[in-house]
Amino acid sequence: MKTIRSTADLAIFGASPAFVEPLHVGRPNLGDKEALLRYTAEIYDRRWLTNNGPLVQELESRIAARLGVKHCVAMCNGTVALEIAVRALGLEGEVIIPSYTFIATAHALHWQAITPVFADVDPDTHNLDPDAVRRMITPRTSGIIGVHLWGRPAPTDALQQIADEHGLQLMFDAAHGFDCSHQGKKLGNFGRCEVLSFHATKVFNTFEGGAVVTNDDELAEAIRLMRNFGFAGYDNVIHPGTNGKMPEINAAMGLVNMDALGEFVCANDRCHSQYFAALAGVPGLTVLPYDRDNDPNYQYVVVEVGDDSAVSRDEILAALHAENILARKYFWPGCHGMQPYRDLFPHARLVLPNTIRVAERVIVLPTGPTLSEVAIDTVAAVINQRMAAA
Ligand code: T4K
Question: Buried-most residue among 37, 182, 346, 351 (CB within 10 A)?
Answer without folding.
Answer: 182
